[in-house]
Amino acid sequence: MLTLSDVKKSFGAHEVIKGISFQVEKGESFGLLGPNGAGKSTLISMICGLIPNGEGEIRVNGKLVSKHRKETQQMIGVVPQDIALYPTMSALDNLMFWGKMYGLSGKKAKDRAKEVLEIVGLTERGKDRVETFSGGMKRRINIGAALMHEPQLLIMDEPTVGIDPQSRSHILETVKSLNEQGLTVIYTSHYMEEVEFLCKRIAIIDEGKLLISGTKKDLNNRLAGGIVLKLTVGSLHPSFIEQVKKLNGVEKVIVQQAEEIDVHLQSKMESVADVILLASQSGVVIHNMHLKEANLETLFLQLTGRSLRE
Amino acid sequence: MKSLLIAVKDAKIHLKDRKAILMMILMPILLTVILGSALKGVMGGGSMPKTVLGVYSPESNAMTEVIIRALGEDGLAIIVERAESEKQLLDWMEEREVHVGLLLPDEWDPDTERAIILRTTGQETAATLIRQMIETFGQMSQAIANSTTTVMAEAAALSSDGSTVDMEAIQQELTTAIEKVMNEQRTYVSEPAHEESVSSMQYYAAAMAAMFLLFNAMAGGKSFHQEKRSETLSRLMMTPTSVRSILTGKLIGAFLFAWIQFLIFMGATHFLLKVDWGPSILQTLFITFFYIFSVAGLAMVVAAFTTNEKMADIVGTMGVQVMALLGGSMLPLTLFPEVIRKIAKLTPNSWALTSYTSIMTGTSWSALWLPAGVLLGIGVISIFISSIRLGRRIA
Ligand SMILES: Nc1ncnc2c1ncn2[C@@H]1O[C@H](COP(=O)(O)OP(=O)(O)OP(=O)(O)O)[C@@H](O)[C@H]1O
Ligand SMILES: [Mg+2]
Fold first, then answer.
1. A2-221 maps to CATH 3.40.50.300
2. What is the CATH number of the domain that holds B135?
3. Which residue's alpha carbon is at the smallest distance from atom 1 of ligand 1?
4. Which ranges of chain A does DSSP label H, i.e. alpha helix?
5. Final residue of a domain: which of B129, B158, B190?
6. Binary contact (A80, B234; C-beta < 8 A)
7. Which CATH class is domain A224-293?
8. Which of B5, B226, B229, B232 to mutate against chain A (most A CBs within 10 Å)?
9. Does the C-beta of A39 come closer than 6 Å to ligand 1?
């Protein structure tokens, strides 16, 4: 369905995408995970023919985007990161306009717009101006506009940014069921829970590079340690952290805030006891502690030493 | 086809914008009423025995040239003789070759500097008259400038923030400004001879049409930036549509709205204000077609050479102001000196305005070829230059 091979992109002297390759099969749900500025939106803009790609090749259904721009664009439905709708027009008019821009005839556009309103759960609000909608409702119409022409590939760029949990779960459920009906989905986010919920395969990118990609299982197998010990301490001596790092079974220590540290452990429970013992020996008071299973977020931490969300 | 979709969408959005409707449709009708009726007296003719006026001005600047021209206007019963020096003027007075002498000081400005008026015995009335004319001239340029600023400030406020228009306040301000002039008005400035048959209402209907259609240039430019800022332009470019179709669509959109605006304005002035647009509606529509084409071109220039809505607003408002003034939408062109009248030929609205007024008094089709050609040229050049730049900028 979609193939990227060694795609690069620079803005002036700034290289934003540094050679990314991956493949998305028909019917798949593919997650693109990465922190702010990783290059997710830039990648999507290139796939959708908004900006030309530098080096490398992007193919949609075997067709080069750079050569067959209109054809490949017709196959893709894209949900931009920002709400790209006309605020003074009604939801229905917006949907119909975007449908017609993909070649739908007047009658077809109207029928389809009603279907799409149904899909995003806003049938009763169809005649209202988009500017009167809540953030979550705008997001849903923003997605709806991408569904109008029944694309083969749906690309979503952080479609849930800044909305209430209810709208968010509605959107996630909708996308999941669309995917189950056979639509290929590429989902971009820096919320790992969303990507874990939706996507079979996941790629993590950072600073324009693909760090790792594979199924959820592949990625879990790559996790360096099984457990994260989260500590909230009274006061912190730098020497304490150095000592913890030297303990047996400790993978990595990350200071989140002044009093909060994450200690990544290989799944041995003894190491937990060692850390606590060391704390009491060096006079560090522990206010709070709990254990967490490692997940994609921890994987990102392990790969980059930084957290996914600042 | 895709262009048409974008154009219709743009025109719809514009028509839904209540502020735009107030600004683009109600305002010109209102101003036509106010200016047209207020300046009726000024533009109405009057006759009196010829007075010979001797003028000496040590230097010639725009202001002195305007007033000397105005005094020498065909319709006035004044013959103007220019003296080479102050002494020559005094000699003329001595020999009674002139009835009244006028000495304009260095760097004369009607607001601050008084002109010296010399009178020969028995010519007191003529001298008083000329003094009044000069004073009124100053006040009038002041009043017109004030009302322009008011309208423009309101227009700018309208398009930039969400406040509603206080039509009453604008009307009040304009009327007081003009009334002030009228009260002190005992002048005999009469209409220029060749436009004698156009009433002040007709003149200002044409003038306001020419001026307010220009605002489409600003609105079109802004709509482009709006589309860019709200990410809908990016979204449009991710649909299977070429950049050229998108730009064409925006152009046709501006064109479409301008037509709606003009037709409503023409209808309203015709039916409500009883303005006679002349014997040939076809000629009026013909010129309007080319005028709107050139304005749509200017809209693209505004879009291409500004970087955001605010800048488009400022540049657009200033542009409209200057062009409206130069193009005769504020004061009849005949009151301006030759140089300015030549410069005015660069503005599309002056071509539209002179065409409208000549159509009102009846003109031949062949006389309209030149203005139509010029307007077409302005449009083509604007579109050419700006599409190169825009194409480069959004690609
Ligand atoms: N048009 C542009 N000109 C110059 N630099 C750009 C441009 N677009 C993006 N960049 C840069 O490219 C990098 C990647 O940006 P991009 O928007 O793709 O990140 P992202 O992964 O989508 O981030 P976010 O999660 O914040 O949306 C950033 O450093 C950004 O500053
Ligand atoms: Mg992004």
1. yes
2. 3.40.190
3. A11
4. 40-47, 69-75, 91-101, 106-119, 135-147, 165-180, 192-198, 216-222, 238-246, 270-281, 296-304
5. B190
6. yes
7. alpha beta
8. B232
9. yes
* Cβ neighbourhood burial of B341 (10 Å; 0-12, 13-18, 19+): middle
B82 inside domain:
yes
Print pLDDT tens along chain A (310 aa).
Answer: 999 989 999 988 899 999 999 999 999 999 998 888 889 999 999 999 998 888 889 999 989 998 999 999 999 999 999 999 999 999 999 999 999 999 999 899 999 999 999 999 999 999 999 999 988 899 999 999 999 999 999 999 999 887 888 888 888 999 999 999 999 999 998 787 888 889 989 998 988 899 888 888 787 777 665 677 888 888 777 788 888 888 887 877 878 777 788 887 876 677 888 888 888 888 888 888 888 776 777 777 777 766 665 5
CA distance B66 to B109: 11
Question: What is the C-alpha separation between A193 and A241, in angstroms, rounded?
Answer: 29
In chain B, the residue whose alpha carbon lies closest to the alpha carbon of A44 is B238
Whether B379 and B267 map to the same domain: the answer is: yes
B235/chain A closest Cα distance in angstroms:
7
Please give the residue range of the domain that contains residue B172: 51-190
Nearest to B37 by CA among B175, B210, B147: B175
What single DSSP character describes residue A59?
A: E
What pTM does this model have? 0.71
Question: CA-to-CA distance for B289 and B209, rounded, in angstroms?
Answer: 13
Q: Which of residues 226-245 of B touch A (CB under 8 A)?
A: 230-232, 234-242
Residues B11 and B131 in one domain: no
Helix (H, G, I), strand (E, B) or coil at A281: helix
Q: Distance between CA A87 and CA B137 in Å, rounded?
A: 49
Residue A7 CA to residue A4 CA, distance in Å, equals 6
